[in-house]
Amino acid sequence: MATSTPTRDAYAHAPRPSKKEPTDERRQVWRSRLWRFDDKASPYAYIAPFFLIFGAFGLYPLLYTGWIALHRVSMTGLDSMEWVGWENFDKILNDPEFWTSVSNTFLIGVISTVPQLLMALGLAHLLNYRLRASTFWRTIILTPYATSVASAALVFALVFRADGGLLNWTLGLVGFDPVNWANGHWTSKLAISIIVIWRWTGYNALIYLAAMQAVPNDLYEAASLDGASRWQQFRKVTIPSLRPTILFTIVISTIGSMQLFGEPLLLEGGALGATGGNENQYETLSIYLYNYGWNLGHLGPAAAVAWAMLALLLLIAAANWIVGRFFRTSAVRPGAPS
Amino acid sequence: MRITRSVAGRRHRTALVATTGLTVTALLLTGCGGSSDSDKGADANGNITLTVADFGQFGYKEAGLFEKYHELNPKITVKEDTTAEEKNYYPKLLQQLNSGSGLADVQGIEVGRIKEIVDTKADSFADLSKVIGVDEWVSWKAKQATAPSGAVIGAGTDIGPMSLCYNRELFEKAGLPTERDEVAKLTEGGWEAYLALGEQYKKKAPSGTYFMDSASAMFNAVVSSSPEQYYDASGKPIYKDSASVEKGWQLAAQAASKKLTQGLAQFEDQWQAALRKSTVATVVCPAWMAGQISTYAGDANKGKWDITSAPGGTSANWGGSFLAVPKSGKNVDEAAKLVKWLTAPEQQAAVFKAIGVFPSNQGAYELPDVKNATLPYFNNAPIGQIYADGAKSIPEAVLGPKDGVIKDSISTQINNMEQRGTSPDDAWDAAVRTIDKAIG
């Protein structure tokens, strides 16, 4: 608390310069009241725009989605809503396709997030060395992040095309048979993960890099005096210092992979993309939501899926918190009381 | 101090330029929605731009009809906005109807969706019954677009009478006859005979080729030759017990288990590639399919394809569309006039001549362009003659609101039987699950 800025209140009661005439006292009181009101109220005024916008574009849609989830609404008649209670949730929870898409979402999430963060960590470590044209390299690794999902997915769709795709062509040169990437259960998930990894690795690397540069140099000096190798320094100094950042990137990546939509939609494109493949082999929760709402034309279950996704995210966040807490306590325990 | 200030000033300006740039980009990116609004309505000189949103291939561009309309009506320019796949087009149309924005002056509607539109969205469309001569159409076509109130919300463009497209070159290599009449004779016994021909083809098939592209086309042909399809007359979905669905499914399962098909999802990339590389020997061909084949097989395969009558002389209608005019447009009257013109006999005949999409306006049938029409791409097949006979005896089908979704879901599962060897029972269960979600 010592580092936080003292509020104006702290000064309000400070002794006033004796210049003031006693006749000004009433004005003084009034002014001090205003001063205090300003002190209490203006922060709310400052943050109000955010909450107004959040209310209109965040909270209201969220609640309204919940309202729709309890109704029967079809795409062809948005104005006629019929109350059905929990029926929509019942419907999706009893739909095997929903569970397929839950497991697809998790699998793709794991296949994409784990290598992506490991690679980002490695890249950040490399970029943290003294490099020639370091800004250039940092810009380069961020470029994939700056492309739109659609264009990235469309380009990768060409790479992964079963027929005349770049990857199959390359495999053919080496003597492998062409693979129908989008059609296979694992290959399609792999293909989507590769698009995600390509887009997000640089972004995470830059976040790690920023965190690495904030690690005090003395720690490394001390470590090298103790005879730690570079690898040991990376493991014993860099990684522990980055722990909060790593947790942050994990949370962000998890949210991102939960909402995965553009990549699976466009991998094959067309009608197959909208159902996540002919056997729903790469159907994520967002695709399932879209398919239920827009292709099959029922917005109630689609809204229920949206809420189910929120619930899943909260569950993951809770798990994350517990794991994070466990690590923090286990990391502190061996050290001296701090 | 001065230095700092000027740097700060420059930074400020950079920020300003950057934000302006971003805003402009954002406006450009969202421009598709915005600019069409400003296109609507007449400008100072009374010039009008009409937009036509459609899907697949309506053939107006190919027949040069929009230019012609502009010549006839110099004040009117027509712009077409085409979505390749109807499955992607329809959800977008519903969304636009719900929000009341983004609609074109003229919207295409496929026959698999017309019932749902008539049932639920008829109020959003202008009544064309006073503009077009409803009696000119084949009777069932006009009925399909008529709302209970009597309003006609769509003018029929084409219908899809059935035929069989086949690749002469592959037939020859496989030792099968290549002449139209002979092929028709071989499949005279109906779809079973068609499959038998497939087995014959398979015995001597050039490597890497298949008898058909997908059994889903055959399924659609079988179902659409029956008046009873997915719904009964009272509007109840009966697809589980429908005899035509049953028969089509059995045939498709047979074709899949005998490996007579390449198992491609029709109209998707791989299907297009198969046509380009000539790996399929036959395609079950509603009239509009010919246009698809010539587009994707390309000039290199011109003259290799031919068209004969459908197996067993099946007369069926698969597909076909309507043009409708949303009420919310700024030029409803002009749009209706355009629709009337585009669906008039002469124009339908021109489209037929250009890409083989068959007229739904009976007035077109007696025109020489239709009666004597041949398609050069298809070895000069006399399509006028092939389709006109079938068109007259097409049964009046009972349509249902979810016909489109039902057809698509079953097609997907037929593809799974073909491609993945999914057992017919599992595939059927999967189709039913999806369909019941759509109906329920």
What's this, in brief?
Chain A has 338 residues and is mainly alpha-helical.
Tags for this model:
heterodimer; A: 338 residues; mainly alpha; MetI-like fold; 2 domains; two-stranded antiparallel sheet; 14 helices; flat; B: alpha/beta; D-Maltodextrin-Binding Protein, domain 2; 19 helices; 13% strand; disordered N terminus; SBP (chain B)
Q: Order of strands across the biggest sheet of chain A? A: 1-2
What is the CATH top level name of the largest domain in chain B? Alpha Beta
Order of helices and strands of chain B: HHEHEHEHHEHHHEHHHEHEEHHEHHHH
Q: What ranges of chain A have pLDDT less than 50 throughout 5 or more consecutive residues? A: 334-338
Major sheet attributes of chain B = 9 strands, mixed
The helix/strand series of chain A, from N terminus to C terminus, equals HHEEHHHHHHHHHHHH
Q: Give the name of the CATH superfamily of the largest domain in chain A.
A: MetI-like
Q: Strand count, sense and closure of the main sheet of chain A?
A: 2 strands, antiparallel
Q: Ranges of chain B with pLDDT <50 over ≥5 residues?
A: 1-40
Please give the oligomerization state of what you see: heterodimer
Number of discrete helical segments of chain B: 19
Number of strands of chain B: 9
Number of DSSP helical runs of chain A: 14
Largest interface: A-B, 30 and 34 residues
Going by CATH, the homologous superfamily of the largest domain in chain B would be: Periplasmic binding protein-like II
